[in-house]
Amino acid sequence: xxxxxxxxxxxxxxxxxxxxxxxxxxxxxxxxxxxxxxxxxxxxxxxxxxxxxxxxxxxxxxxxxxxxxxxxxxxxxxxxxxxxxxxxxxxxxxxxxxxxxxxxxxxxxxxxxxxxxxxxxxxxxxxxxxxxxxxxxxxxxxxxxxxxxxxxxxxxxxxxxxxxxxxxxxxxxxxxxxxxxxxxxxxxxxxxxxxxxxxxxxxxxxxxxxxxxxxxxxx
Amino acid sequence: xxxxxxxxxxxxxxxxxxxxxxxxxxxxxxxxxxxxxxxxxxxxxxxxxxxxxxxxxxxxxxxxxxxxxxxxxxxxxxxxxxxxxxxxxxxxxxxxxxxxxxxxxxxxxxxxxxxxxxxxxxxxxxxxxxxxxxxxxxxxxxxxxxxxxxxxxxxxxxxxxxxxxxxxxxxxxxxxxxxxxxxxxxxxxxxxxxxxxxxxxxxxxxxxxxxxxxxxxxx
DNA sequence: AAAAAATTGGGGGTATCCCCCCATATACGA
DNA sequence: TCGTATATGGGGGGATACCCCCAATTTTTT
Lengths: 219, 219
Fold this sequence. Notes:
The structure is a homodimer. In chain A, strands 2-1-3-4-5-6 form a 6-stranded parallel beta sheet, with helices on both faces. In chain A, strand 4, helix 4 (87-94) and strand 5 form a beta-alpha-beta unit. By secondary structure, the first copy, chain A, is α/β, with parallel strands linked by helices. Chain A has helices spanning 11-22, 36-45, 62-72, 87-94, 108-119, 127-147, 156-166, 171-178, 182-196, 201-210, and strands spanning 2-7, 27-33, 50-54, 77-82, 100-103, 124-125. Chain A contains 10 helices and 6 strands. The first copy, chain A, folds into 2 domains: 2-140, 3-Layer(aba) Sandwich (Rossmann fold), CATH 3.40.50.2300; 156-210, Arc Repressor Mutant, subunit A, CATH 1.10.10. The model of chain A is unreliable at 143-147 (pLDDT under 50). In chain A, helix 8 packs across helix 9 (182-196). Chain A binds a DNA duplex through helix 7 and helix 9.
């Protein structure tokens, strides 16, 4: 038996979902919530396998709810539902733990499929949503490239130093690891600050991560 | 007329692609390269609209080639081709400027479609590849969550301070903006270091970005 | 071959960060 | 209601980062 909680402030829509699911023997709608806080409350005293979560909840947004749920109720999987096929909504809630994203015009067959898929631990996305995400990934790339049309080329040694900075090593430690002088590392740091147009270490790290300057290795 | 450059170290495969494209009047295969450096050389003296790039090139990898091409030859669009539907390959080359990714078992119809799509400035991915990416996004999420099972809750004020740190403000500047004492901000910094298990500002910023702690606003 | 960039290193100084100790008041949760 | 977390603030000090000046050598690019 799969316990499902519906979180949507549109009563009519919540009813619709519930009536669709009602006919399925293996599924039980254990509750309905109209806002974020009541979802959290409900989960504290009930077992829920799948949370059908509207992204655009009033008050506490769906994103925050999702974050909270995946952090504190690990046995509950979130399947996001939204009226909008907006790239920002999709990526945002996926980055906060949702296992799937479907649109409100989804038919009953696809709804069941999505629920089963998410329930089995896999992720599910409507085809339209998938398209949107792929486009979004590209847009994000080109947009970030436009904002900083050409950031100066970072040399091999500077890249090394930057990588070690991101690993929280101090200048002295970096010097030791690279077998060069403290002063040399300071030179590289200084050049990095100038090239990346950063004021301090924080900016160095942020810009490096935003522009994917340091290939991350597995550790 | 669309100029296409094929970069693949497997001669037989490059021949196959070329022979498929030869029959299309609007397409002209202007060259074939067997390794990365020769691609760069070729682009320096030729106009190429689309680069069909094998991800797994010997010597200079396809990822590096792609990075170089999108950085320095902005009029050339990269369509990645690979034998492997590997999530790491796909995301890596997409993050380095490729506009599309297709597999080597792609048929001629889909090949033309991919070329046209990329040529028009949109991105193209085989269905299989799309599935792989979506799964990968999820995996990446759950994996990163496992590595740091539960990082302590960051309070509202700490989040504010952390956000300003990432914007490269100094402790004194943060104190001024929040109308609190320098010492208070230092307390928050100190608590953040302890909670996030970081050694210094670099770690603070890296961990914040890795865990998506600071909602980025548009500027 | 000449110019530019990268790599190396130093002196000296200030700003900032990070650390230890401490305290008070408020708010939140068990 | 009683602890824990949060937010506030202070003294003092050592470590680190950042800044200015500078220069020699090597590598890369033009």
